[in-house]
Design goal:
The chain is about 45% helix and about 25% strand. The chain has six helices and five strands; from the N terminus they run αααββαβαββα. The protein has a three-stranded mixed β-sheet with strand order 1-2-3. A hairpin with a 2-residue loop joins β1 (about 60-65) and β2. The longest helix has 19 residues, at about 30-50.
Length: about 150
């Protein structure tokens, strides 16, 4: 069982290339740690797949990496409820030594975009409507000038 707290990880700390290139001195066979990491990753994938809601909404959006028993999650998910479902799905998986959460929540991203656009709305007297789905931001609204549109996009 892993600790409840999750931390943000530095993406440079974990490399996909390094994961592919690790080999033992005996050739292409994986070390016991790598086998354990692969087993943990498979268990996490299975746990996420078993949850019908996660399978329908989030499963394809979550990237799972495991290195030395430490789980690294990245991708975009809908909201905090999904995050709790993900954490609960993997909580009982044995062998997890740590948990780094790099998942971006759409509801948080929506708030950040709306807050950033608020200054433009007050300055230029326009209104924006924002939406986010798995990290893709949609902006709608009516502006009086192309420059305001470009500022909103920026």
């Amino acid at each position: 069982m892993f600790p409840i707290q999750s931390t943000k990880a530095n993406p440079d700390e974990f490399s996909r290339c390094e994961e592919r290139e690790q080999k033992t001195e005996y050739g292409n066979k994986r070390s016991p740690v790598q086998k354990s990491d692969a087993a943990i990753k498979d268990s996490i994938s299975h746990a996420l797949w078993k949850d019908a809601v996660l399978r329908a909404i989030e499963y394809e959006q979550i990237d799972v990496r495991v290195k030395n028993g430490v789980v690294y999650l990245s991708g975009h998910i809908v909201n905090t409820t999904s995050l709790y479902r993900i954490e609960n799905a993997i909580r009982a998986i044995p062998g997890i030594q740590g948990f780094h959460n790099n998942l971006v929540l759409d509801d948080g991203l929506t708030y950040q975009v709306a807050a950033a656009l608020g200054a433009l709305e007050h300055t230029y007297g326009c209104k924006f409507f924002t939406g986010v789905s798995h990290g893709v931001v949609s902006l709608n609204g009516i502006v009086t000038d192309e420059s305001v549109k470009l500022l909103a996009e920026k």
